[in-house]
Design brief:
mainly alpha; about 425 residues
């Protein structure tokens, strides 16, 4: 089968007259995948830093548990406001430049948080979390860049590969905290401020890896898909089109609820454990186990999603998220808490890989940034409200009520995934 020269916009040496994939394209895919994975690993360091100390820092300055929960709500407000916009920019300007912009904004936000905490400015600190959410919304779109480079039958594997790289960043966070604690004491600088600066440095590393992407992953997607410019310029995008597919609607809902459980438990875990006088190093280790649950099995899960379809893993992910959300706040035992938060991470992994694969399979290259950005917006709404509501539940019902709250969030996701009749293999590949 021959390819029309107008079908893609990649210059030599990527051009060949036949549809056989050029070895240089395969090399570019491997190279760009490794760079995106390295950037994801570095970004996970910053994510873990904010998850570990965000609510603690605000609680230390304000003494208000509800306000501590609001830290992650305001972060997700930033994601809500800019997820779709970042996807739109990616579809228009390519993936690389937009990801670099997101990294710069994220790094600035963490440097600002460091100085504002030192100045004990609660309002300014909350504003820095809003900026962090904005940058993080853009960085989160690296999933678009990764899925660009893989065939529809391997999108789950691509998502799993990207997520698995986050384990490295998680493991690095433990010695970083252990190293910064004595430095903080000897220099008379707050530990939280130093940790935010370390997170900003990690994000700058991610910016550096993104800068070496070549060519832009959207160009590779055009080569692999053979889409013509009129199909990929995005001018005919209608944001309501993905909602014509019931499986996509279910994927949006399942993803949002599992994200809400994960963010609520992750954001208030430090508060729960510090309330029980658990040392910071052990809290860091628990969060690391949570992140391992999120990412360690992502690659095999992605391969199983490609082979068996998304529905089964949407159900499994929702069940694990609910059980972990119930267990985490119910006990003061360190190991039980750690097991609970690990299950939350594992449930998130199964649901996130499966729903992302389903949504990506249902969208064209030229609109994929916006559709996945729309999904991020939905998950952002859930993730913004869930921690704040969780803080209110803790303030009124205690940590037992918080566990019931986590389980309750999973029930609609479980039911919707069970009754979903179609699967990712049956979703139409073209919605426009």
């Amino acid at each position: 089968k021959r390819c029309d020269r107008s079908a893609f916009l990649i210059s030599q040496p990527f051009w060949r007259k036949s549809c056989v994939i050029d070895p240089s394209v395969r090399h570019a895919v491997r190279r760009n995948s490794a760079l995106l994975a390295a950037g994801q690993a570095a970004s996970s360091v910053a994510f873990q830093v904010n998850s570990l100390i965000g609510s603690l820092a605000v609680f230390e300055l304000s003494g208000n548990a509800a306000l501590a929960g609001f830290v992650f709500s305001i972060t997700w407000i930033g994601r809500i406001l800019f997820s779709y916009a970042s996807g739109w920019l990616m579809d228009r300007a390519g993936r690389k430049r937009v990801l670099i912009l997101g990294g710069i904004l994220t790094s600035i936000s963490m440097v600002a948080a460091s100085f504002l905490f030192f100045a004990r400015d609660v309002t300014g600190l909350l504003a820095s979390f809003l900026l962090y959410g904005t940058g993080n919304a853009i960085l989160g779109q690296n999933i678009v860049a990764m899925t660009d480079m893989y065939e529809d039958s391997r999108i789950g594997t691509a998502v799993g590969y990207l997520y698995t790289s986050s384990i490295l960043g998680s493991l690095v966070s433990i010695p970083v905290v252990a190293l910064l604690e004595p430095i903080s004491s000897s220099m008379g600088i707050g530990l939280y401020s130093l940790m935010w600066l370390a997170g900003a440095s990690a994000i700058l590393f991610a910016v550096g890896t993104t800068a070496f992407l070549k060519p832009d992953t959207k160009q590779i997607a055009l080569y692999l898909k053979g889409n013509r410019p009129r199909d990929t310029d995005g001018n005919n995008f209608n944001s309501s089109m993905p909602l014509k597919s019931p499986p996509v609607i279910v994927a949006f809902v399942v993803s949002a609820l599992c994200w809400g459980i994960m963010v609520a438990m992750m954001s208030l875990l430090s508060l729960h454990m510090s309330h029980n006088s658990i040392p910071m190093t052990l809290i860091t280790a628990s969060i690391t186990f949570h992140v391992i649950g999120m990412y360690a099995l992502s690659l095999p899960l992605g391969k199983m999603v490609d082979r068996l379809g998304s529905k089964k893993f949407m159900i499994v992910g929702s069940v694990l998220s609910g059980l972990g959300g119930l267990l985490t706040p119910l006990t003061t035992d360190y190991y039980a808490i750690t097991l609970g938060i690990f299950l939350v991470g594992l449930g998130w992994s199964a649901s996130s890989v499966s729903t992302t694969a389903l949504i990506a399979n249902a969208t064209e290259v030229g609109i994929r940034g916006r559709v996945l950005g729309l999904n991020d917006m939905v998950t952002g709404i859930a993730s913004a409200t869930a921690p704040f509501a969780g803080g209110v539940v803790i303030a009124t019902q205690g940590f037992f009520g918080f566990g019931v709250y986590g389980l309750a969030l999973s029930i609609p996701a479980i039911l919707l995934a069970i009754v979903m009749k179609s699967d990712s293999r049956l979703v139409a590949r073209r919605l426009v």
